[in-house]
Write a structure and sequence with these properties.
With 220 residues, the protein is α/β, with parallel strands linked by helices. Helix content is 31%, strand content 13%. The strands form two sheets. A four-stranded antiparallel sheet has the order 1-2-3-7, with no helix packed on it. The relative contact order is 0.12.
Length: 220
């Protein structure tokens, strides 16, 4: 299997883009350095073709979880093309945002209102702020990866190895306010005793966790 074009472009990207990509979840080194395809030329359904023409079945993170219908779904493509023809941005609001809000509230009757976010990290940060406002407590117990925002990265202010196994080992929290020290405490997945001890020794108002992920991709 030849991967020359993709590898060369990835090495070039790392010199002009911090981390090589805009999204941590898409860094090749997280999967298989020098052997994981970094870029795609075509994607359809669950199939992907890289820049060198290699053909894969995507059993990994499927567009970081956003493509639940598969890549380039015909109905989605048609709707997107129609929206582009009608104008995808304007000074006024899109009526579809009200329609989507009503649908989401029908699916989640426990919610009272809807607020949209652009990324998972942003959505998580919004949830943390709401939880802190409701609980009137600043401290958070967390498990897993939850984005790059200050509330999360602050875990490494107390110990630069706290995010090892959750995010990246040895991550330095440069630029994160020191006043956030000890406001985010990590625990390991399925270690209930560890979480109980954290709750006993800290005034925890929020608990957030992510199950362990095991992405895969197979070549054809």
């Amino acid at each position: 299997m030849q991967m020359t074009k993709g590898t060369d472009l990835w090495n070039k990207a790392k010199k002009i883009i911090p981390g090589g990509t805009q999204l941590l979840s898409k860094r090749s080194e997280l999967f298989l350095p020098e052997k994981w395809p970094s870029y795609y030329k075509k994607a359809k359904g669950v199939e992907i073709w890289d820049l060198d023409g290699n053909h894969y079945t995507d059993m990994s993170i499927m567009g970081v979880g956003s493509c639940i219908l598969g890549y380039a779904d015909e109905d989605v493509n048609t709707s997107v093309k129609n929206a582009i023809d009608e104008g995808s941005m304007a000074t006024l609001n899109s009526p579809e945002e009200v329609e989507l809000a009503e649908l989401l509230l029908r699916l989640h009757p426990w919610a009272q209102m809807v607020r949209y976010a652009r990324t998972g990290g942003e959505a998580t940060t919004i949830a943390i702020r709401i939880s802190r406002a409701y609980s009137k407590k600043d401290k958070i117990a967390f498990c897993g990866y939850h984005g790059w925002h200050d509330w999360y990265i602050s875990a490494n202010l107390a110990d630069d190895s706290r995010l090892d196994g959750h995010l990246l080992p040895g991550l330095e929290p440069l630029g994160v306010p020191r006043c956030l020290k000890e406001t985010a405490i990590p625990f390991n997945y399925n270690e209930i005793e560890e979480l109980e001890k954290i709750i006993e020794t800290h005034d925890i108002g929020t608990i957030i966790l992510e199950p362990i992920r095991k992405p895969m991709i197979s070549a054809q």
